[in-house]
Amino acid sequence: MHEQSAEILLGAKETTELCPQTGASQESSETPRLSLRADQVGGAEEAELVQRVFMLPAHEVPHVVTFCAVEETNGAGGICSRAAINLANQTGSVCLVEGNFQSPSLHQYFSLDNSRGLSDALLESGPIRNFVFSLREASLSVLSGGSRCGNTQALRKSERLRHRIAELRQEFSYVLICGPPVRQKQMDAVLLAQIADGIILILESMVTRREAARTAKENLFAANVNILGAVLNNHSFSIPETLYKRL
C-alpha cells in the first residue's frame, strides 16, 4: 500500500454544503518511454475517484480536470498521478500535466528528466507531443513542469496556456492537471481550473482548515469554475457521511 491515502468526500453527482455540484495521435519513435513502479499504481481510493468522476454517461464526462489542494500539501501530486494511472488502465489515452510551477513534483514522482515540459512549451513552438514523455506499461503520458518553472509569468500568459491545453485535449482522451494550491490572491489555480472542465479539491486531513476550504470554494464559484468534487488526503480513520455534510 502507498503511504498517502485519499477518501472521496464528493462525487461528481453529489451535493453538499461545501461543494455543491455545479483520440491520441501517433507518438514519435524518439519519445522516451518510462516504466511504472508497483507503488505508483495506487489503490481502491484512486480507483473509486476515477469511477465517480470519469465513468459517467458520455455527455457528462469531464475530459480535462485540474487537481488542486486547498493549502500547501505534499499529497496533491501523488493523488493526481495515481488517479491518472488508474484512468489510463481503464480507458483511453491519458496525459498527466504539471501545472504547479512554483513547486513541481511530477518529474520526481516518475523519476523524469525535467529539462523539457509545459513551461518550455509555453515559450517555444512545435507540437505539444515534442514535450511529452510516455509510460511503457499504460496509456499514460506525462508533461512535466520543464526547465522554466521559475518563470511563473509563462503560466499567466493565459491565451498561450489555453492553446497548449487545447492541443492536449485533441491529442489525448483525458488530461489531468496537477495545479498549485487554491489560495487567496493566487490566480494560477483558478486559471487552470477555468481552462479545464472542472476541478477536484484536495483537503489534507488534520491540516486543511474549514474556513480555508470555504474560501477556496467561494473563490472558485465566483470564477465560474465547475467543482467536480473533493478528496480527503492522508486520513487515518473513516469519517461518517453525516460529518462530510458539515464541512
In short:
With 247 residues, the protein is of the alpha/beta class. Helix content is 30%, strand content 18%.
State which percent range the strand residues make up: 15-25%
- 3D shape: globular
Calculate the mean pLDDT score and round it: 77
The total domain count is: 1
The CATH class name reads: Alpha Beta
What is the tally of beta strands?
9
What's the end-to-end separation, in Å?
A: 28 Å
At the fold tier of CATH, the topology name is Rossmann fold
| Uncertain runs | 1-6, 10-41, 236-247
> Structural class, from secondary structure content?
alpha/beta
The CATH architecture classification is 3-Layer(aba) Sandwich
Helical content (DSSP H or I, runs of 4+)? 25-40%
CATH superfamily: P-loop containing nucleotide triphosphate hydrolases
Largest sheet, in brief, is:
9 strands, mixed
Work out the radius of gyration: 17 Å
What letter string, H or E per element, gives the SSE order?
EEHEHEHHEEHEHEHEH
Number of helices: 8
Name the strands of the widest sheet in spatial order: 1-9-8-3-7-4-6-5-2
What does this structure look like?
The chain has one domain (6-24, 36-244): Rossmann fold (3-Layer(aba) Sandwich), CATH 3.40.50. Helix 1 crosses helix 2 (76-90). With 247 residues, the chain is an alpha/beta fold. The chain has eight helices and nine strands.
Outline the fold blueprint.
Elements: E1 6-10, E2 33-34, H1 44-54, E3 64-69, H2 76-90, E4 94-98, H3 106-109, H4 118-123, E5 133-135, E6 140-143, H5 158-171, E7 174-178, H6 188-195, E8 198-204, H7 210-222, E9 227-233, H8 241-244
Helix pairs in contact: 1-2
